[in-house]
């Protein structure tokens, strides 16, 4: 029996049947046939529950409260279903599973809530920053998927429900692009602002290259070394270029770009420039041209397998017959890598994917060969799932491991060096000149190795001749390449002249005043020697100093047994802390605990003030003599060490460097900062006395230091406590193994 409609019920039905949006149907209420009635709030323009529900079969209004009245109504409901099929027998379960005639719209479709002006502005800025950071296309940022995401995030994190009207407020593609370009311009201005102070100092080097993946575009970067010897790299331009990209066109594009941000043409041409061999003529338009080493590494690797025409004429015909085997190895590796990458099922079963084949860089084929060789067991397990071309290539590589090993034996060091060179993030002076000497013509293990080594030695002089004084100087200062066997005496002299003159122009301007320019560990790599060298240059005896420096290089390293084939030679740093040691034992220790080599005692006294009279030898004003040389002279006593360990040769060069590195690193611990400051007080300087502190002896050799060595499986007695990891070590694991936590 139908319930009599009240005045309120008729009002709700009238609102639902009208064209307005004052009342709408909301979510289901206990059954798919019953919907809640939502009414619009006058204050917030949002929909809220009215407390009533509507039966979609008979249009009867029900109370939206708990109870069994809804199912009782559905049992006796006389409304007919507007569907092509007859209504099935009614029961509680059948009524609960029946779907309505039409799918009801979501509540967000009716919401009229909008973003405020401030919220819309924040959303626009957020989308623009996301596009700038990720490089996503503007069509994607303004597309429907991104707009739906913003609405979902707003509904999940805020109060209320945003719908179609709020979605329409989200900015479109053009607005996002405008804001993104504005942000990018601001970033570029900031980048040029950081770069501007170094332009007049001739410390800016431009790095340019024409696009390979994005065709006909010139990429521009600027690198410079700041006042703390940190290498900085800034992107400054991505310039469209014509198909006929001549050197003159490239120069005009570079200068126009720099002039657009306020540089003068003179400032632009005062920069040095780094580019590949195709842009070598840029050197006539800028202060100097530096040949890109990375390109040379790739070209050398390529010409080992595919010699230049003039070099091919110089090679034996038997060697030329073997070189195509190396090319076949690389091609097959790329085929296998491509087959795996194009097979989603194979990708899902691999622990990691091989390198993606790419023809823009020649060493890409070598990277594919390295990965395929390392993953060969996994690839063979799923080789049946690969394409015919991929299977054939993998079977060939698996049947000829001797060829794979031969190619890797010759070319893999070049790949290792190339990756290391491209990842450098500071001025280490270790990674400038390519490791050409790694290709050894004396290796005769396999015919292919001999053929590749012979072929690879031919283009050495060809590419080596393209380097200038920058490469000579950087290599000369490298601790790992001081032998300089590939350089003549004149080249070495030119290297010193170029490198030292360039750096001294601003090193000497900094002076030795620590208040004006504090020195850190990076400064010690160059400043220690160059500051000392400045007086000799002023006196005009630079050549004498230079020759002495060259001879010292050779004498210092004549006992080293490093060769290009040794694994130790390819490490970034042999003993990291040794390069921070000053060149002479006379060290001054600044108040912040940093060491620097200075012989200018009077200048230090004038700056800090002294309570004592200056001695002839300066011993009273040398903190290093007071706290280091006097207190730690026992380190030089080797009697006990020689008796206890016959096989340990402390007097050899390598072991001396290790021990110096260990002692120096422990003395540089932050825990000894107050002790380092006290050295100035003990030497008579008028500086504040630090609070109570512990000495190196108390920290390195505390009570209970003679315990068990912390190394696993070691039964030796410990003798020292590391100031960094605070663990106890025996002599073998601390000194001989060179502990460097």
Q: How would you sum up this structure, described in words?
A:
The protein is α+β, with helices and mostly antiparallel strands. Among the domains are: 7-109, no CATH class; 117-182, no CATH class; 199-291, Nucleotidyltransferase, domain 5 (2-Layer Sandwich); 538-736, no CATH class. Helices cover 47% and strands 9% of the residues. It is built from 31 helices and 13 strands. The strands form four sheets. It has a five-stranded mixed β-sheet. A four-stranded antiparallel β-sheet has the order 1-2-3-4, with helices on both faces. Strands 10-11 form a two-stranded antiparallel sheet. The longest helix has 25 residues, at 317-341. 26% of the residues are buried. Mean pLDDT is 69; it is low at 79-91, 93-105, 426-445, 472-484, 508-524, 533-605, 607-621 and 629-636. Pfam families: Transp_Tc5_C (PF04236). This is Transposase Tc5 C-terminal domain-containing protein. InterPro entries: AN1-like_Znf (IPR035896), RNaseH-like_sf (IPR012337), Transposase_Tc5_C (IPR007350). Residues 680-741 form the Transposase Tc5 C-terminal domain.
């Amino acid at each position: 029996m139908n319930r009599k409609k009240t005045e309120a019920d008729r009002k709700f039905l009238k609102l639902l049947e009208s064209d307005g949006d004052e009342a709408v149907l909301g979510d289901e209420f206990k059954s798919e046939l019953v919907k809640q009635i939502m009414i619009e709030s006058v204050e917030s323009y949002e929909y809220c529950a009215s407390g009533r529900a509507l039966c979609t079969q008979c249009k009867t209004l029900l109370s939206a409260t708990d109870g069994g009245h809804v199912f009782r109504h559905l049992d006796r409901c006389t409304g007919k279903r507007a569907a092509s099929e007859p209504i099935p027998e009614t029961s509680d379960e059948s009524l609960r599973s029946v779907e309505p005639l039409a799918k009801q719209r979501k509540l967000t479709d009716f919401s009229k809530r909008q973003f405020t002006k401030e919220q819309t502005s924040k959303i626009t800025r957020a989308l623009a920053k996301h596009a700038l950071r990720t490089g996503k296309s503007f069509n994607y940022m303004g597309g429907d998927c991104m707009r739906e995401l913003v609405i979902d995030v707003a509904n999940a994190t805020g109060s209320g429900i945003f719908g179609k009207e709020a979605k329409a407020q989200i900015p479109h593609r053009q607005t996002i692009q405008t804001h993104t370009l504005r942000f990018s311009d601001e970033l570029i201005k900031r980048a040029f602002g950081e770069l501007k102070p170094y332009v007049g100092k001739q410390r800016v080097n431009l790095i340019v290259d024409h696009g390979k993946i994005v065709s006909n575009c010139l990429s521009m970067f600027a690198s410079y070394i700041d006042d703390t010897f940190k290498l900085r790299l800034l992107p400054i331009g991505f310039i469209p270029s014509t198909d006929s990209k001549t050197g003159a066109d490239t120069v005009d594009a570079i200068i126009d770009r720099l002039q657009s941000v306020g540089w003068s043409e003179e400032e632009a041409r005062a920069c040095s420039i780094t580019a590949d061999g195709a842009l070598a003529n840029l050197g006539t338009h800028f202060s100097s041209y530096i040949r890109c080493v990375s390109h040379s590494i790739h070209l050398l690797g390529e010409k080992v397998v595919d010699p230049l025409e003039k070099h091919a004429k110089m090679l034996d015909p038997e060697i030329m017959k073997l070189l195509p085997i190396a090319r076949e190895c690389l091609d097959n590796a790329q085929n296998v890598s491509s087959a795996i990458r194009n097979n989603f099922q194979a990708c899902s079963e691999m622990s990691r994917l091989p390198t993606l084949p790419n023809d823009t860089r020649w060493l890409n084929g070598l990277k594919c060969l390295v990965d395929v060789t390392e993953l060969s067991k996994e690839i063979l397990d799923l080789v049946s799932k690969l394409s015919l071309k991929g299977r054939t290539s993998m079977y060939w590589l698996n049947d000829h491991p001797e060829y794979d090993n031969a190619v890797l034996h010759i070319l893999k060091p070049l790949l290792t060096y190339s990756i290391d060179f491209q990842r450098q993030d500071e001025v280490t002076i270790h990674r400038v000149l390519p490791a050409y000497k790694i290709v050894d013509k004396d290796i005769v293990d396999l015919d292919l190795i001999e053929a590749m080594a012979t072929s690879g030695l031919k283009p050495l002089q060809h590419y080596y001749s393209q380097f200038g004084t920058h490469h000579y100087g950087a290599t000369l200062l490298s601790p790992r390449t001081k032998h300089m066997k590939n350089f003549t005496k004149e080249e070495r002299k030119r290297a010193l002249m170029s490198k030292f003159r360039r750096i001294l122009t601003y090193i000497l301007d900094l002076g030795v005043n620590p208040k004006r320019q504090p020195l850190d560990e990076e400064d010690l790599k160059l400043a220690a020697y160059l500051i000392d060298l400045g007086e000799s240059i002023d006196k005009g005896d630079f050549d004498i100093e230079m020759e002495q420096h060259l001879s010292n290089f050779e004498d210092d390293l004549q006992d080293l047994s490093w060769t290009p084939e040794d694994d130790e030679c390819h490490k970034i740093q042999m003993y990291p802390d040794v390069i921070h040691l000053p060149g002479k034992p006379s060290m001054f220790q600044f108040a912040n605990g940093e060491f620097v080599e200075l012989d200018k005692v009077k200048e230090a006294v004038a700056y800090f003030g002294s309570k004592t009279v200056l001695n002839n030898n300066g011993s009273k004003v040398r903190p290093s003599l007071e706290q280091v040389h006097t207190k730690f002279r026992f380190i030089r006593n080797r009697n006990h060490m020689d008796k206890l360990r016959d096989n340990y040769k402390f007097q050899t060069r390598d072991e001396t460097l290790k021990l110096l590195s260990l002692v120096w690193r422990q003395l540089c611990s932050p825990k000894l900062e107050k002790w380092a400051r006290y050295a100035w007080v003990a030497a008579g300087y008028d500086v504040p006395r630090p609070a109570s502190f512990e000495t190196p002896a108390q920290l390195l050799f505390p009570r209970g230091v003679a315990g068990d060595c912390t190394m696993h499986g070691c039964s030796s007695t410990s003798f020292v406590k590391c100031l960094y990891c605070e663990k106890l070590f025996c002599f073998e694991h601390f000194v001989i193994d060179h502990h460097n936590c």
